[in-house]
Design goal:
Elements: E1 2-6, H1 10-22, E2 26-30, H2 33-42, E3 47-51, H3 59-68, E4 77-81, E5 97-102, H4 107-115
Parallel strand pairs: 1-2, 1-3, 3-4, 4-5
Helix pairs in contact: 2-3
């Protein structure tokens, strides 16, 4: 599986990159929402793990940009967030989001979530 991880926290991207590679997956990481969007638009990924709370260009900006470009429905996105989403039901509005995983999370839980997306490679 080709996975893109977009999170401004370098420790998280390094950890996820090592973990996914140990599990036999191809993983690309970035700590910038804008770079993540560029990567998403110019390369094909089976899944995207996206942090919502990033500075300057947030996860919501990332999702809005994909939507505006008509590319949102082609994505399988798992949102990572430490924020309580409250009334924001991203998954229900189909912003390309398949699942929401709350930080802190267990690596095996995230892996099971990715595997549940039924990705055909």
């Amino acid at each position: 599986m080709k996975i893109l991880v977009v999170d401004d926290n370098n420790s998280i991207t390094e950890l996820l990159s090592q973990y996914f590679k140990l599990k036999g997956h191809d993983c690309t990481v970035t700590n910038s929402g804008k770079e993540g969007l560029w990567l998403c638009l110019h390369h094909k990924f089976d899944a995207i793990v996206l942090d919502l709370a990033m500075p300057e260009f947030t996860g919501k900006d990332f999702l809005d940009s994909l939507n505006q470009k008509g590319k949102i429905e082609q994505q399988k996105i798992i949102v990572l967030t430490a924020m309580p989403l409250g009334d924001v039901t991203l998954k229900g509005t189909r912003h390309g989001i398949c699942e929401v995983v709350h930080k802190p999370f267990k690596l095996d839980t995230l892996m099971k979530t990715l595997e549940s997306l039924k990705i055909v490679v």
